[in-house]
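Request: Could I get any protein with tokenized structure?
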Amino acid sequence: MNQVVANIDDPLVIAGKAYHSRLLVGTGKYRDFEETRQAIEASGAEIVTVAIRRTNIGQNADEPSLLDVVSPREYTLLPNTAGCYTAEDAVRTCRLARELLDGHDLVKLEVLGDEKTLYPDLVQTYEAAEILIRDGFKVMVYTNDDPIAAKRLEDMGCVAVMPLAAPIGSGLGIRNPYNIMTIVENARVPILVDAGVGTASDSAVAMELGCDGVLMNTAIAGAKHPVLMASAMRKAVEAGREAWRAGRIPRKRFASASSPIDGAFF
């Protein structure tokens, strides 16, 4: 089956909109906007996250804007609340993004607990999610790999739940695959691994567990050759999704011959 046909036949649907790519990418930590543009193009991503507190998208009129290289006409921008440590700050940041982006209502919510681990503060996350959903936002939410927390956020009305695979920027890969698998099995909304991916094989593993997508920034921007890594991540996400759809063979302790002798002629 042609890869393009496969992607069209198996879209990622978030808040009622279908996407062909299941790889979402960030825009931070690149050398310059030109490298950002090249990496995003190589990734094939259609949803691009923007840290409103750290990236200029028009709030600073005298500075270069990310929108000069990442156009809202070509990509779905996903404003995020990176750097927020309280529900109040996160809500304020989302409202600013909506104002800057002419009523845009799809946001990525993250409320951090401390600067060392960057783990989410779930109490503050619940509070912010409740306010934003009531305020008409479509919330994709960053959380830990706790199935109970993930389910609660889904039940609150979040349009996608994004459990971490490992701490943000750590590159440690999928640390708790069975937790991720449980979250996926219990979900009725898209589940996307967010944070902790280090290389292409980590992305493939996430998709083989049944995740609907993967979001990353540091794994691409921090690579020795970011544009090349973006291309590798694109292929890994596609391969992992196809492998999950195909259904892997069961794990067995002993060998099973590819060409069995049962029924053979001697």
